[in-house]
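CS domain-containing protein
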Amino acid sequence: MTSQVTPPSVSWAQRNARIFLTFNVECEKPDINIEPKSITFKGICEPEKKMHEVLIPLYAEVDPKKSMWVNKGRLIEVLLAKEKVDEPYWPSLTSDKKKHHWLKVDFNRWQDEDESGDDLDNMNDMFSDKDMNIQFGGDNEKDDSSSGEEEDLPDIE
């Protein structure tokens, strides 16, 4: 094991009532401490047996009792419950106004503040398969603005 401690790669996204954090490291026994104004992560991570540690000062307060985390083997997911859900989205995760090289936005989970719904499952139901086909030109129904050139083409044999 090396003596150098490095921060893990962290990605984040948010909703009105919660913050999603992902520690992108494989750590069998992580030590995660959620406080109202910060979250700490510490652990020896595989396969290098390297110590990762970070203290994240949060932009606003969270409720540690309503927050939770789960170790999924290759990553650790954290759900932080915002203390004040009626306030606007946080402009950043951290309160220190610094650009951290280990912190990035999780665009797969991100949802804009003005979008309705609060669950990830609702995002999958936003468009049916038919709606997606129409949007991307996959539907065979005619559009009133088509020029009719497709009708003049002979069948491919």
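thats it. The beta strands are 10-14, 18-23, 26-27, 31-34, 38-46, 50-57, 62-71, 76-82, 103-105. Confidence is low (pLDDT under 50) at residues 119-146. bye
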